[in-house]
Amino acid sequence: MDQGKEAGESTKYRGVRKRPWGKYAAEIRDSNNHGARIWLGTFNTAEEAARAYDRAAYAMRGHLAILNFPEEYPMAGGGSSSSSSSSSAMRGGKQVFEFEYLDDKVLEQLLEDSERRSKKN
């Protein structure tokens, strides 16, 4: 935490505030209930409070949640600026890719590559 910050101001973690007496409060907004605040508790360290926020965010929003520690959750988006993600699996002896989001340019490139391969064979 920066030396210049006063007690009660936010920390470097999402959903965490430092209380005037030195403890850290965690809360999250519930988008399904008009942005109502959900109190997650008071913690001794900012990291504990941030992990409480992450648990609640992941429970509410799954892999779309913006987390403080995305590396601790499977398939977490992590707030990165990337607009696409994918996963792959073997099905019926062929590798299958699942894409969550692709822009038109990427889709066109994939189709063109597929057409080129079909013409070669």
Automatic annotation (TrEMBL):
It is found in: Nucleus. Residues 12-70 form the AP2/ERF domain. GO terms for biological process: ethylene-activated signaling pathway. GO terms for molecular function: DNA binding; DNA-binding transcription factor activity. One of its GO terms (cellular component) is nucleus. Keywords: DNA-binding, Nucleus, Transcription, Transcription regulation. This is AP2/ERF domain-containing protein. It comes from Rubroshorea leprosula.
